[in-house]
What does this fold into?
Amino acid sequence: MFTKRLTTIVLLLTLLPGTALASRFKDLAHIEGVRDNQLVGYGLVVGLNGTGDSAGTSFTIQSLVNMMERLGVKVDPGAVKVDNVAAVIVTAKLPPFARAGQTIDVNVSSIGDADSLVGGTLLLTPMKGPDGKVYAVAQGPLAVGSLAFGGKAAKVQKNHPTSGRIPGGALVEREVPFIFGNPSVLTYRFKDADFTTVSRARQVIDRHFGTAISRPLDGGTLQVRVPPKYRENTVEFVSILEMLEVAPDTPARIVVNEKTGTIVMGEDVRISTVAISHGNLNLVISETAQVSQPLPFGGGDTVITPESEIEVTEDKGNLVILERGVSIGEVAAALNAIGATPRDLIAIFQAVKAAGALHADLVIL
It folds into this structure.
């Protein structure tokens, strides 16, 4: 039996027009050049309880042999067992203004066929940036937070046992060259480019300092001139800027995920006058088999005759008229009135968009 009705969750985010909450300026934009840098390294995790890479993982054997030779131990590659060793990729983010001697968190992920990294210890692993230079070294015991046990017929697993984390597991060895100094002009890059948001930020900044010190360059960039009284204390000036509250503006948008039936609607979604009718078509097919068997020693054959019963029902569709310029709450109430499920709503929004009556971006994930 097949039915179109599904139990799903619909998420409708509604904000009342004119009461949009303001955000801190630091949450909307960042200073140009002040950003994280990605680091990556290749290493070995040892101390595993027989859950490491198999003998067919040649690069693990080669890496182990090379490491032992650098430590002054001569080994025969053919006699090396790597059941307790796993080859891993180590990743981390080098935050801005990180100095030599600071520690950062690292993520460790298996790249071979290891079953689990639980109980393992990462050996000294150089971590490089995109320029090929070593900026940090990582080492330490892994925190995996999972388990995996089993035999030939059954297996029990919780979470993901082939990746782990080492809090503070990498030591910064090289600093990213960036001089904050005492700049006279700061350039801010907005996370989401929007001309209205940039304009509002300029108004808030100029109003707070009582003079025109900011200048928008485009929809995602704002230049702020440091006042003379803060030239020797730019950090304090940046701190004041970051705490200013700006009301961001966002485009009208509806985001739907057809896989999960999730719908998210922004506050500025508007529609033109449109009539909507949506009915569900339910199709039920039942298969049965009539079996006729001959009597014992009758010499006949067993005959199987399939029989199908098909039932088609169509729900009554209610025609609902939505007036021009209604709010998101009225749209939701009207669509709920016709008994539309989340997946029905996705089809309705697509049809309304195709009809040119939906004044919002429709994003389908």
Remarks:
- Residues 194 and 219 are 5 Å apart (CA to CA).
- DSSP finds six helices and 23 strands in the chain.
